[in-house]
């Protein structure tokens, strides 16, 4: 091999190695077929282009132009009657035959459908997922919840779940005083609980304020008497009567699931529904993760 | 040699388009460098209100480099070389001379209208077809005038056989005419609503998937018939002319040409892989893209073989260096493109920076290199002066090669990384990265690309300066040089 | 030597034209009618949404955003159901894009809200600190051109039979009659927003561009 070729291939190698290093840093799984084919493609581009170009440029050094000149001449430009370079000619013929074959035989027999491929991909994946996480422990769920949260929820709730200075729910607390007052005043009918709607104005004035402070404070200390109006539905402990209505004390699985299914429009603003975007396991994982934020 | 001694070629139109090539080249690359910097430093979006955001400037960049720089370059080299390979002078026909100058005037109006209207936000938002309908009509007029000159000169020709460059110029004319027309079909809403609303606004004749097919039938072939075919016309003329070497193989020229014509159009649907276009159309685009490697490489190899045994020219003449490197960058983009057109690879590459990487291998390493080399070759003949500075040209060459390498390696790595990050799942099978993670990781590569832009732009300024000095101040030459361009 | 065709420019040109033309016919025509059929239940854009779409076009959001969800699990997990041809039947032009500097937006209406867009278009970094998207503060003061959108609706109704109601007529009077409907739709959006100037403008019968753009983004589902 001559030096030019060595340099060309060395450049190709550096480029490929740099790509591999960067990709590996991002924890990419190169055994995934799509990733693998892409990397092979990249290798082919670099090696073939630089290799073949080096081969021909090298001929400028070592070879001599010759052949029989055609009689035509344009503005001093002549033309040799040389034959086709055979490597080129056979490759062209080969690819043309391959294309015709693919077109008339290969593709019709294969009958690829991209939607079919998606269905299979998702089916296989879901089966595996359910199998793996049938009995996931809390720690696994919490980590899984965090990863879903960062992708789907962080744009509104912030990477730490703090609600980006009031732009969305601060998930470190169950609810703020303002939110509770707002709900007391307006009632609520959107989360799809079995009990249905909560009527407006179940408490007023000082009573409402006291209740709001009590709930926002984490339902600790002495319960204001007026809370009785709420207890009939939310339970004495505010935990929602076994899922009949939302828990006011904490983010239990039911609250998260109802919010994700139905979305919520409240004092802060609107939270979209994620009905079609998340699986039941992911909802559960999110609940575990969100609970971890307030601890 | 003696054959054209009697003929005085007339370069007045070629000169006019040379000026616009340099002007729009500079403006387009300045904007390119600026938008590259905006992605690395987003604060740069706010320097001139709504007119300075990345999103307003990006189409301005593409339109100015395509319809300003490249198309001017095509016209300039056409008006220069067509006379010579046909052995007729523009001066022989007052009519053609008039049409040529009219074409230039309309072209300048068109280009100015394009810049202003895109800045103002008049856009049909179809890539490479952004100009609104009044400018589309003007484009057609400019194109038709060019066709009149082209076929007029051919009609008057003394050289019976059309030289290879002309095959490619004719194909450029026909290909763009057909595709541009179909893709820009739109209804101006003002005339269909009893005079309501803005008169510039139009609505596409096609919708959804059909619009996508027509758009990329054009978009892909804008690449073919603006960035490839006329540039091949240039290299087939200017490389043998500058080097004095005969074309290596007529057969290779012939098969590459017809192969390219036949295959190119089939490949358009590689821009629509995994979309809602039927599977069979996508596969067709994929397959023919791979076939396309060979007619593309055919021209490049023919050029490299033409230089067989001429190593000394390569080392001594920077113009030859530009053209040989252009051939190899052409090979790079025409292998990279087909590989990106393989469906599995496209699943990663599409929508990522690997695509602009591929684009700029072609446009910086091939298109712009060839245009600059061609204008350098033309200058001593048009202005009867030697090229102002060989040293400067050499420095420009190394600066711009560095820039292209930085551009394509950074975008290559950025694109592959981002494409794989979008697909990556964690151990639980959930998406591993939020979208913004995949943006943040690109910052270093965007910075490198912006630097590449600065280098390339500096090189272009050196080119512009060298040309300017060649036109005005360098040493006069007596006789026209037959091959190698004289330079100080 | 074999230079026959190259001595006959006319046949040469015809040859080139035929060779480049027919690929397009084979690839585009067979599917044309099928591909223009809308999915069941698809409604044409309202005039306000069309106005927003024109703003999206004017500012080339397509430069950074795609509207095409490909059928890969990673993509449907991130953005929702893969895109269907019939969903684009009223998209003139199509806005699939070819570069995702920012995320896909084909179903962004499912998982983002008016308030969020308001914050985000005003200052993307306020919600996504590492964002490189430009802020579009001028949308909060520029007044949107709803009349042109109406003209577009009338045009596509008459020429392409896009199913707009009979009240869409190419006359000034019909437009004046339709205007209050557009304003009402704008008001519903402005009610969810916080920016005072925007609310005030809408109350005064003017629609800032941001309102129309959000109407369009919310429609993307
Ligand atoms: C054999 C020849 C070529 C093939 C098969 C090819 C193929 C491709 C493919 C597959 C894409 C990406 C589509 C996507 O996923 O978004 C692409 C994009 C592009 N290529 Fe090539 N390419 C070729 C040569 C070239 C050359 C020589 C140039 C320019 C000098 C070029 C310029 C472009 C441009 C401008 C785009 C971007 C289109 C867009 O806006 O999305 N290509 N090409
Ligand atoms: C100084 C040199 C240049 C720089 C720094 C530059 C930079 C850029 C940038 C940043 C983009 C947008 C990429 C994105 O959206 O991610 C772009 C797009 C583009 N540029 Fe350039 N550019 C340069 C020169 C040129 C030239 C000379 C041409 C053509 C002759 C060209 C043709 C294009 C095209 C066709 C696109 C659209 C690609 C696509 O949509 O995929 N550029 N350029
Ligand atoms: Ca147009
Ligand atoms: Ca693009
Ligand atoms: Cu293409």
Summarize the structure.
By secondary structure, chain A is an all-alpha fold. Chain A has helices at 3-25, 33-62, 86-110, 114-132, 138-157, 163-166, 177-186, 205-216, 228-234, 253-262, 280-294, and strands at residues 264-265, 270-271.
Mean of all residue-level pLDDT scores of chain B:
95
List all distinct small molecules, including ions and cofactors, that are bound in this structure: protoporphyrin IX containing FE, calcium ion, copper (II) ion
Q: Structural class of chain C, please?
A: mainly alpha
Percent of residues in beta strands of chain B: under 5%
List how many beta strands of chain C DSSP finds: 0
Multimer state: heterotrimer
Record keyword descriptors for this entry.
heterotrimer, A: 295 residues, mainly alpha, two-stranded antiparallel sheet, 11 helices, 2 strands, 59% helix, elongated, B: 488 residues, Cytochrome C Oxidase, Chain A, binds protoporphyrin IX containing FE, binds calcium ion, binds copper (II) ion
Outline the secondary-structure elements.
The complex is a heterotrimer of chains A (295), B (488) and C (221).
Chain A: H1 3-25, H2 33-62, H3 86-110, H4 114-132, H5 138-157, H6 163-166, H7 177-186, H8 205-216, H9 228-234, H10 253-262, E1 264-265, E2 270-271, H11 280-294
Antiparallel strand pairs in A: 1-2
Chain B: H1 12-40, H2 54-86, H3 94-120, H4 133-156, H5 164-183, E1 186-188, H6 189-192, E2 202-204, H7 208-243, H8 250-264, H9 279-306, H10 311-316, H11 318-340, H12 343-349, H13 354-383, H14 390-423, H15 435-440, H16 443-472
Helix pairs in contact in B: 1-2, 1-3, 1-16, 2-3, 2-4, 2-7, 2-13, 3-4, 4-5, 5-7, 5-8, 7-11, 7-13, 8-9, 9-11, 11-13, 11-14, 13-14, 13-16, 14-16
Chain C: H1 9-28, H2 32-35, H3 47-58, H4 73-79, H5 108-111, H6 114-122, H7 146-160, H8 172-191, H9 196-203, H10 209-219
Helix pairs in contact in C: 3-7, 3-10, 6-10, 8-9, 8-10
What does this structure look like?
The complex is a heterotrimer of chains A (295), B (488) and C (221). By secondary structure, chain A is mostly helical. Chain A has eleven helices and two strands; from the N terminus they run H-H-H-H-H-H-H-H-H-H-E-E-H. The longest helix of chain A is centred in the N-terminal third of the chain and has 30 residues. Chain A is elongated. With 488 residues, chain B is mostly helical. Chain B has one domain: Cytochrome c oxidase-like, subunit I domain (Cytochrome C Oxidase, Chain A, Up-down Bundle). Chain B has 16 helices and two strands. The two termini of chain B are 24 Å apart. The model of chain B has no long low-confidence stretch (mean pLDDT 95). In chain C, helix 6 packs across helix 10 and helix 8 crosses helix 10. Chain C has two domains: 34 residues; 173 residues, Cytochrome Bc1 Complex, Chain D, domain 2 (Orthogonal Bundle), CATH 1.10.760. Chains B and C meet through helix 2, helix 5, helix 6, helix 7 and helix 8 of B and helix 1, helix 3, helix 4 and helix 7 of C. The site of one protoporphyrin IX containing FE (HEM) has 28 residues of chain B, from helix 7, helix 9, helix 11, helix 12 and helix 13. The site of one protoporphyrin IX containing FE has 28 residues of chain B, from helix 7, helix 9, helix 11, helix 12 and helix 13.
């Amino acid at each position: 091999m001559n030096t030019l070729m060595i340099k060309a291939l060395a450049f190709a190698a550096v480029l490929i190695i740099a790509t591999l290093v960067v990709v590996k840093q991002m924890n990419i799984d190169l055994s995934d077929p799509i990733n693998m084919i892409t990397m092979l493609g990249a290798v082919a581009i670099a090696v073939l282009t630089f290799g073949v170009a080096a081969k021909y440029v090298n001929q400028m050094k070592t070879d001599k132009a010759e052949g029989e000149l055609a009689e035509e001449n344009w503005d001093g430009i002549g033309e040799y009657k040389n034959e086709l370079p055979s490597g080129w000619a056979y490759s062209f013929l080969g690819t043309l035959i391959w294309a015709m074959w693919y077109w008339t035989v290969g593709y019709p027999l294969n009958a690829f459908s991209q939607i079919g491929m998606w269905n299979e991909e998702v089916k296989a994946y879901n089966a595996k997922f359910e199998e793996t996480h049938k009995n996931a422990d809390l720690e696994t769920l919490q980590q899984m919840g965090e990863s879903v949260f960062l992708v789907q929820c962080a744009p509104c709730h912030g990477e730490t779940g703090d609600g980006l200075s009031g732009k969305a729910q601060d998930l470190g607390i169950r609810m703020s005083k303002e939110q509770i007052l707002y709900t007391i005043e307006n009632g609520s009918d959107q989360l799809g609980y079995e009990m249905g709607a909560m009527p407006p104005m179940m408490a007023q004035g000082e009573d409402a304020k006291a209740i709001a402070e009590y709930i926002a404070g984490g339902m600790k200390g002495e319960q204001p008497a007026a809370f009785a109006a709420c207890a009939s539905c939310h339970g004495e402990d505010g935990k929602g009567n076994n899922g009949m209505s939302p828990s006011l004390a904490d983010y239990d699985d039911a609250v998260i699931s109802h919010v994700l299914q139905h979305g919520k429009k409240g004092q802060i603003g609107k939270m979209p529904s994620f009905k079609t975007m998340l699986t039941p396991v992911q909802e559960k994982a999110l609940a575990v993760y969100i609970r971890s934020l307030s601890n | 040699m003696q054959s054209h001694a009697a003929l005085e070629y007339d370069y007045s139109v070629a000169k006019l388009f040379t000026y616009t090539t340099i002007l729009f080249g500079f403006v387009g690359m300045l904007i390119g460098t600026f938008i590259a910097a905006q992605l690395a430093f987003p604060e740069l979006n706010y320097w001139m209100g709504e007119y300075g955001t990345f999103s307003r400037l990006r189409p301005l960049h593409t339109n100015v480099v395509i319809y300003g720089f490249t198309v001017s370059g095509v016209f300039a080299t056409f008006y220069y070389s067509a006379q010579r390979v046909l052995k007729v002078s523009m001066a022989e026909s007052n009519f053609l001379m008039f049409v040529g100058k009219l074409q230039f005037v309309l072209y300048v109006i068109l280009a100015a209208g394009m810049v202003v209207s895109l800045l103002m936000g008049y856009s049909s938002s179809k890539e490479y077809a952004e100009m609104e309908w009044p400018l589309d009509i003007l484009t057609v007029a400019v194109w038709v005038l060019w066709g009149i000159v082209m076929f007029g000169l051919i009609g008057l020709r003394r050289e019976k056989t059309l030289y290879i460059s002309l095959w490619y110029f004719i194909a450029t004319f026909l290909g763009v005419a057909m595709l541009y027309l179909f893709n820009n079909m739109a209804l101006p809403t003002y005339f269909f609503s009893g005079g309501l609303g803005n008169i510039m606004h139009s609505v596409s004749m096609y919708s959804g998937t059909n619009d996508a097919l027509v758009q990329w039938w054009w978009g892909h072939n804008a690449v073919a018939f603006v960035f490839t075919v006329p540039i091949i016309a240039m290299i087939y003329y200017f490389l043998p002319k500058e080097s004095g070497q005969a074309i290596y193989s007529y057969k290779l020229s012939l098969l590459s040409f017809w192969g390219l014509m036949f295959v190119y159009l089939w490949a358009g649907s590689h821009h629509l892989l995994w979309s809602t276009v039927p599977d069979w159309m996508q596969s067709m685009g994929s397959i023919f893209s791979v076939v396309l490697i060979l007619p593309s490489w055919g021209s490049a190899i023919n050029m490299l073989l033409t230089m067989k045994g001429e190593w000394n020219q390569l080392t001594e003449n920077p113009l030859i260096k530009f053209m040989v490197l252009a051939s190899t960058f052409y090979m790079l983009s025409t292998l990279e493109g087909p590989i990106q057109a393989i469906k599995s690879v496209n699943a990663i590459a599409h929508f990522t920076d690997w695509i602009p990487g591929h684009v700029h291998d072609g446009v910086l390493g091939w298109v712009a290199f060839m245009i600059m080399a061609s204008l350098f070759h033309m200058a001593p003949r048009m202005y009867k002066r030697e090229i102002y500075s060989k040293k400067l040209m050499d420095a420009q060459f190394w600066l711009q090669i560095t820039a292209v390498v930085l551009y394509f390696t950074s975008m290559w790595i950025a694109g592959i990384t981002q494409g794989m990050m979008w697909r990556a799942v964690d151990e639980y099978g959930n998406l591993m990265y939020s979208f913004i993670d995949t943006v943040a990781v690109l910052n270093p590569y965007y910075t490198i690309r912006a630097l590449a832009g600065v280098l390339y732009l500096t090189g272009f300024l050196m080119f512009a300066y060298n040309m300017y000095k060649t036109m005005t101040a360098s040493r006069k030459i007596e006789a026209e040089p037959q091959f190698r361009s004289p330079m100080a | 030597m074999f230079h026959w065709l190259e001595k006959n420019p006319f046949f040469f040109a015809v040859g080139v034209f035929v060779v480049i033309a027919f690929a397009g016919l084979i690839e585009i025509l067979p599917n044309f009618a099928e591909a223009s059929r809308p999915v069941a239940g698809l409604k044409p854009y309202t005039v306000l949404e069309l106005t927003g779409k024109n703003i999206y076009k004017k500012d080339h959001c397509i430069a950074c955003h795609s509207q095409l969800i490909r059928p890969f699990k990673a993509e449907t997990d991130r953005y929702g159901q893969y895109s269907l041809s019939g969903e684009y039947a009223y998209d003139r032009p199509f806005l699939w894009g070819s570069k995702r500097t920012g995320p896909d937006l084909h179903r962004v209406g499912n998982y983002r809200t008016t308030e969020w867009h308001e914050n985000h278009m005003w200052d993307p970094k306020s919600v996504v600190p590492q964002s490189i998207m430009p802020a579009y503060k001028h949308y909060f003061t520029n007044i949107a051109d709803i009349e042109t959108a109406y003209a577009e609706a009338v045009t596509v109704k008459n020429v392409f039979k896009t199913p707009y109601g009979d009240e869409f007529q190419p006359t000034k009077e019909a437009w004046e009659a339709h205007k209050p409907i557009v304003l009402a739709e704008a008001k519903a959006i402005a009610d969810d927003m916080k920016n005072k100037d925007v609310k005030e403008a809408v109350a005064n019968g003017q629609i800032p561009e941001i309102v129309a753009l959000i109407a369009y983004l919310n429609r993307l589902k």
